[in-house]
Amino acid sequence: MLEVSKEERAEIYSDSRFQLFLNKFLSGELDKLNPVYDPKHGYTYPQVEAIIGGSATPEGFLNRLYEMGFLKRELYDKIIHCPACHSANVSTRYRCPYCRTFDIKKSSLIEHVSCGYIDSEERFRKEGKLVCPKCGSELTKPDVNYRKAGVWCSCNECGKSFDIPVSSHFCRECNEDFTFEDANYRDVYSYSLDETVMKEAGTRYMLVAPVREFLQNRGFHVESPGFLKGKSGASHIFDIIASSGEKAKTLVVTVKRSSSGKEVSTSSDDKAKEIIVIDIASSQTGETVSEQSIISMFAKVFDVAPSKAYLIAIPKISENGRKLADLYKIKLIEAADQNAAVQALEATISQTSDK
Ligand SMILES: [Zn+2]
Ligand SMILES: [Zn+2]
Ligand SMILES: [Zn+2]
C-alpha cells in the first residue's frame, strides 16, 4: 500500500472518472465490482471500461485506486493467458508422462471391499453390471461393498498406465502448446469501496449533490471538488467551487475533511465577477468541529481571495472556530445534518446573489 498524501487523495477525488466510479457505489448501483469473463479477452471490467474510455486500462485504473487505499480487493480467480498471443482462450491438456501425448483415457479405480481386489472400472464392467474379476461377486452398493479408490489413466499411444498425468496448456487462438512454466498466470480481483472512503464520500456526496444542483440551477458553473490557483501560484482544493460567466457571479464550493470533520467554503477567481468557495467539515464524534477547519481554510482563502468563502460545519463549530471565522471573514454555516446545511446554504447564497 502506498503512502498517500492529502493532496494526492484530493486529486483522486477531483478526477471525474473516479467521481463517476464512486457514484456507482454511493448510488447503490454497485456493491462489489466483479470481473466479467469473455473467452477471447479473459476477464474484463465493462463498467470501468465504460467510465474510463481509452484513457487507461481498467486494471491499471483499479490497481491504482487499490494501492492508494480507495478500494479493497479480493481474489476472484486466477487466469491463464497464452504466452505467445496473450489470449485467454486456453485449454488444459492432461498428458501421458511417458510419451507426452494428450490422447489418454481416464478411468476410476474400484476396490471390492470384501476381497480387497482393486482395478480400473472397465475391468469390473460386465453386461451393464459391476462384477469383481477376482471373486466373481456382483458389486451393487457403492460405499458399502465397493468404493472408488482413485483414478487410473492409460495411454492410447504407448499403452502405459499411470495415475497422475502431466498437464500442459493449449491456446485455441494460435495453437501454441505451453506448460505452466511459460504460462502467463495472473490474479483476478473483485473490488469494493473501502469503508473509510464510503463514509467520507457518502457524506460529501449527500451534501455536495444538492448544493451543486442548486448552484447549477442558478446558472453557476460548478466544480466539486475544484481547484483554484492562488496568488502564490499554488493550487488549492475546495469542496465546491461555483463560478458564473464574466458578467454573472462565480460561486466556488469545496469540501475538505479534517480529523474532526469536513468544511465548506466559497470563493471567486479573477476572471469571474464573483467566485464562491465552500468547504465542508463534519464532526466524526457528533460534537464540535475544531477551529483547525477554519484555520486551514483561511490559508487557502487568503491565497485565492474569492468573493465569498463558506464553511459548512456539521453539526457545529467550536467556540474558537466561530471567533476565527468571524475574524477571517469566512461565512459559517452550522447545521445539524446535510439537509439543514443545504437549506441554510441555499438561503445564504440566494440572499447574497440576489443583491
Ligand atoms: Zn496463443
Ligand atoms: Zn504414452
Ligand atoms: Zn472380489
Describe this structure in words.
The chain has 355 residues and is of the alpha+beta class. It folds into three domains: 30-96 and 166-193, no CATH class; 98-164, no CATH class; 197-353, Trna Endonuclease, Chain: A, domain 1 (3-Layer(aba) Sandwich). It is built from nine helices and 24 strands. The protein has helices at residues 6-14, 16-26, 46-52, 58-67, 121-124, 195-217, 292-304, 319-328, 338-353; strands at 36-38, 42-44, 71-81, 90-95, 104-112, 118-120, 125-126, 129-130, 146-155, 161-162, 166-171, 177-178, 184-193, 221-223, 226-229, 235-238, 240-243, 251-258, 261-267, 275-282, 288-289, 308-314, 316-317, 331-334. A hairpin with a 5-residue loop joins strand 5 and strand 6. Helix 7 (292-304) runs parallel beside helix 8. The radius of gyration is 33 Å and the shape is elongated. The two termini are 51 Å apart. Bound molecules: zinc ion (3 copies).
How would a textbook summarize the main sheet?
Answer: 7 strands, mixed
Distance from N terminus to C terminus (CA atoms, Å) equals 51 Å
The CATH topology of the largest domain: Trna Endonuclease, Chain: A, domain 1
Rounded mean pLDDT is 85
- Total helical elements: 9
Instruction: Output the structural class.
Output: alpha+beta
